[in-house]
Backbone:
DNA sequence: CTGTATTTGTTCGTATGTATT
DNA sequence: AAATACATACGAACAAATACA
């Protein structure tokens, strides 16, 4: 898995991260009801600030792909929820 | 012992706390094998958030001065471990 | 064996300041 | 000016392991 983050291009870092996770969801690598990586693990995995990781999660929420439960995590929605 | 925390300067609070504890270690006030103050006690003593106390401990770990045992505490390493 | 207290682990929420683009 | 990104800091909730009475 490349999962390279580019800061020199036109695509915001948070969108790039969200896209990676969205791809995981759509490919079934993270199934409905299961948690996506925590903000902290995104920070570690992608080497970004937590602020950026949060934006990525927000982006996924905006697309209806996930739902966050405070202090628990962010979970993949049922497949039909993102339509 | 002053141990004043300054929030108006350029030195992060967590670094200031770590420096205080590092000084205690280097002065022999906390000996190898013994525990440094818990996160909770740092919160109380310095009036900071736990997040900040944890950063201070992390900073000490990064310097090789201490080692954390989960659910037990954080302990001073042997003197030669920090070289 | 059974609680209770202590301690670190983990997670998201919120805010501020700075720098860069 | 506005959006993006990083770093710092405080809050809050709950989990889990450990230690001990």
Residues:
């Amino acid at each position: 898995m490349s999962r390279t983050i580019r800061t020199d291009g036109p695509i915001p870092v948070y969108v790039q991260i969200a896209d990676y996770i969205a791809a995981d969801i759509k490919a079934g690598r993270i199934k409905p009801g299961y948690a996506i990586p925590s903000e902290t693990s995104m920070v570690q995995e992608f080497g970004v600030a937590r602020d950026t990781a949060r934006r990525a999660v927000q982006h996924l929420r905006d697309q209806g792909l996930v739902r966050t439960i405070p202090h628990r995590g962010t979970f993949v929605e049922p497949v039909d929820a993102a339509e």
